[in-house]
Amino acid sequence: MASVRPFLGPGRLFLLLAIHMLAAFQFLYVVCHEDAASLLRRASETLKAKQYGEALGLLNAAIESDPKLSEAYLQRASVLRHLCRFEESEVNYKKFLDLKPGTSSAEKDLSQLLQAQSALDSAYSLFESNEYSKALDYIDKVVLVFSPGCLEAKFLKVKLLLGVKDYSSAITETGYILKEDENNLDALLLRGRAYYYLSDHDVASRHYHKGLRLDPEHAELKKAYFGLKNLLKKTKSAEDNAAKGKLRMAVEDFRAALALDPIHTAHNVHLHLGLCKVLVDLGRGKDAVDSCTEALEIDGELVEALFQRGKAKLITEDWEGAVEDLKSAAQKSPQDMNIREALRKAEKSLKLSKRKDWYKILGIPKTASVAEIKRAYKKLALQWHPDKNVDNSEEAEAQFREIAAAYEVLGDEDKRVRYDRGEDIDDMDTGMGGGGGGFNPFGAGGQQFTFHFEGGFPGGGFGGFNF
């Protein structure tokens, strides 16, 4: 970091102070040799040019020259109200009304002053309660209407704009202040914050740095400047570790960066996405879904976040959720082949998840041998044979169909290989009977079906079924 040093050297600073002091002496000399009426006229002219500081000096001199000059009190009250120096303004309005009681215009101005003062107090109270929009109404519709030169109200307005995340307006408002005083530290700080929350970090850093050149010990500027540097450093570390394949270190760095400023959404959306990618690569599907969801809550149109969340849902076997996210990503980026390939995989997994698990139906592992498949089939077919389940024949018949269908696939080597690969097999998922044209142990049209098992079933045959 470049060294932070005072903006002005001691020699130049002394010279500028001397020039300002000379100008002040000249001003006082002129003022002391003018009468109250001419001072009042000059004050009116400076007010038209919005030179409020000079106008106040002239009005102070006029009143000192003629304490009964009512118009000077009225003008001074107006200037002080304009600058929201409300208590001083009220004293001057009352002094004018003492000299010219019953003046309706002055009474109206005094009423407006009290309204502006009350509105500013209310705005501060609402600001402390985080009711930023209501506070902005008080500032815009009352305070700055009656006291348009109130710098205090202007700064509060900028803070409120930051509170409602209207960063562009905050930049505009601080620009007006800096046009009048380019070295205003509070304006530099607040404008830097607005750029920071827009993720325009280079411009934010320049504002903070300029303020620190003017005042190296300004606590808020130091906090903002070094906080930004730390955030960028931690972000770079996370991205570098991810690029180098140091995924667990990257996870720690991404989370540390996110903890530095949780409300910096313009920057954090990329941190959440980066974290999601790393978690996907680590196979931590649930955590990855959470991170990508955080990114999408900030920017719902972020295609990469939809893509990564879809991949994360594949890991967690949320097939429907994966298809939904990947379809949305494919619609937003139809030329991205990686998204299309992931979508095909998700759609295939969803389809497979809905087909019947023949291994589960026979109660055998996917590694079962041919002999194990036959044994399981014979056992279950005997258990659920309709002749042995007269009291629950409908359930037995349904179970018997399932068992026979499972054996039709798994008992055939070619069909089993295709099934294990996830390929479609004609009528494989239609069950048995019931309009699908699939394997029906009871035959079509009520015709009898005869099973022939090698070695037969223990205990002999059952009714019309020969074993």
Automatic annotation (TrEMBL):
InterPro entries according to UniProt: DnaJ_domain, DnaJ_domain_CS, J_dom_sf, TPR-like_helical_dom_sf, TPR_rpt
Gene Ontology cellular component annotations, sorted alphabetically: endoplasmic reticulum lumen
Transmembrane segments: 12-31
Keywords assigned: Endoplasmic reticulum, Membrane, Repeat, Signal, TPR repeat, Transmembrane, Transmembrane helix
Gene3D superfamilies on file: DnaJ domain, Tetratricopeptide repeat domain
GO-annotated biological processes: host-mediated activation of viral process
Compartments, as annotated in UniProt: Endoplasmic reticulum lumen
Top-level taxon in the UniProt lineage: Eukaryota
A Pfam family: DnaJ
TPR repeats: 185-218
Lipoprotein listed as a keyword: no
J domain mapped to chain residues: 357-423
CDD domains linked to this entry: DnaJ
Function: May play a role in protein folding in the endoplasmic reticulum.
Subunit and partners: Interacts with BIP1.
Name of the protein in its database record: DnaJ protein P58IPK homolog B
Protein's organism: Dioscorea cayennensis subsp. rotundata (White Guinea yam)
Gene: LOC120265486
